Amino acid sequence: MKSQQAPLVVYFSSISENTHKFIQKTRVESLRLPLLTKDEPPVVDRPFVLCIPSYGRPNGAGSVPPQAVKFLNVEQNRAHLVGVIGAGNTNFGDLYCVAADKVAAKCQVPVLYRFELMGTAEDVHKVNEGLEEFWIQNSLY
Known about the structure:
By secondary structure, the chain is of the alpha/beta class. The protein has five helices and five strands.
């Protein structure tokens, strides 16, 4: 599925690389956001899904990584966002994958999937199959 027509996932992964390790196990085409906020974000010219981790801060404040905020502040990037995948830690309780929920609500796109830490083999399978189906259903190929 890694071709010009493959579903594109843009993702942020911190130095823990949990999200990166998950994305590398999938069949999607991917683009990693810069680790440092001082670096310029890429500009995307086709439909994509954003995969972002959440960070456990009180009341969910600051849970969306600033690198993802900077990326989505580029109007062209927001225009091509079609869905969100959340990475998180169930230890955060009600704030599990809250960053995905916040981005989805603000950008009016669906949360397509949630996984914990680096995900499981089942999570990888569900994301591969789910994104392919989502791309077909929404004529994104």
